[in-house]
């Protein structure tokens, strides 16, 4: 059986932890920059990184940092191309936020609890019943955290599938498209990065790879 090939978008920095996590579940992560759609790819993984330009949700900069105009533009085109091809997409951290913006949602540009979410600190999230996450990890489970922004207005077609403290959306699934997103970093919760204080991130990565495999 051919390996599932996942295109990684992370800007110019090679996303080694993502590549390692995908390899751990039997898939191949492909990185290049600038990155373009290819029919050879079975899915798209939008990696973590700097903030999405708030102009895309009709706000001025008010807490957003490290904006990369080229990456924003590239990823809007990439997402459209993969959606047009009917191929699965996963968003992690920035990718979670980016997909929310892509579907017309908005972000809190700097949450008041940002210090609690820096440096990979572990915290609990609560998954909604009948969600992918609930089936993998149960109703309440621990994840890592490295972000200062969060989903505010949910994008069209997206459903919240996990929350922190009942306040911020930490994961989504699309109602009709093969899209899943998480605010945390599962690639830093598995294999050589596996932690005792979080669940195994390999489960959600493997789920995404199987989405891509079934779609081949």
Q: What would your notes on this structure say?
A:
This protein has 216 residues and is of the alpha/beta class. The chain has one domain (5-215): Class I glutamine amidotransferase (GATase) domain (Rossmann fold). Helices cover 25% and strands 22% of the residues. The chain has helices at residues 16-24, 69-84, 94-102, 132-137, 202-215, and strands at residues 5-9, 28-31, 43-46, 89-92, 107-108, 123-127, 140-143, 150-151, 158-164, 168-174, 179-182. It has a 9-stranded mixed β-sheet with strand order 2-1-3-4-11-10-9-6-7, sandwiched between helices. β9 and β10 (168-174) form a beta hairpin. The longest helix is centred in the middle third of the chain and has 16 residues, at 69-84. The model has no long low-confidence stretch (mean pLDDT 97).
Number of helical stretches of at least 4 residues: 5
Query: What overall form do the CA principal axes indicate?
Result: globular
CATH-level-2 architecture: 3-Layer(aba) Sandwich
State the assembly state of the protein chains: single chain
Structural class: alpha/beta
Strand order of the largest sheet: 2-1-3-4-11-10-9-6-7
> Number of domains in the coordinates?
1
Order of helices and strands: EHEEHEHEEHEEEEEH
**Could you give the distance between the termini?**
11 Å
Model regions low in confidence, pLDDT < 50 over at least 5 residues: none
What's the helix and strand layout?
Blueprint: E1 5-9, H1 16-24, E2 28-31, E3 43-46, H2 69-84, E4 89-92, H3 94-102, E5 107-108, E6 123-127, H4 132-137, E7 140-143, E8 150-151, E9 158-164, E10 168-174, E11 179-182, H5 202-215
Parallel strand pairs: 1-2, 1-3, 3-4, 4-11
Antiparallel strand pairs: 5-8, 6-7, 6-9, 9-10, 10-11
């Amino acid at each position: 059986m051919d390996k599932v090939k996942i295109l990684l978008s992370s800007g110019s920095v090679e996303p080694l932890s993502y590549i390692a996590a995908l390899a751990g579940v039997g898939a191949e992560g492909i990185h290049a920059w600038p990155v373009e759609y290819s029919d050879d790819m079975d899915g798209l993984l939008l990696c973590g990184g700097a903030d999405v330009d708030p102009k895309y949700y009709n706000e001025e900069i008010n807490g957003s940092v490290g904006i990369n105009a080229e990456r924003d533009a590239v990823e809007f085109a990439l997402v459209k191309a993969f959606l047009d091809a009917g191929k699965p997409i996963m968003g992690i951290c920035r990718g979670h936020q980016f997909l929310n913006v892509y579907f017309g949602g908005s972000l809190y540009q700097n949450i008041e609890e940002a210090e609690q979410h820096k440096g990979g600190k572990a915290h609990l999230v609560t998954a909604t019943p009948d969600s992918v996450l609930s089936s993998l990890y149960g109703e309440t489970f621990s994840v890592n955290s490295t972000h200062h922004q969060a989903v505010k207005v949910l994008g069209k077609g997206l459903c919240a599938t996990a929350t922190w403290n009942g306040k911020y959306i930490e994961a989504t699934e699309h109602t009709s498209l093969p899209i899943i997103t998480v605010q945390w970093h599962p690639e830093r919760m598995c294999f050589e990065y596996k932690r005792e204080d979080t669940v195994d991130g390999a489960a959600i990565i493997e789920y995404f790879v199987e989405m891509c495999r079934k779609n081949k």
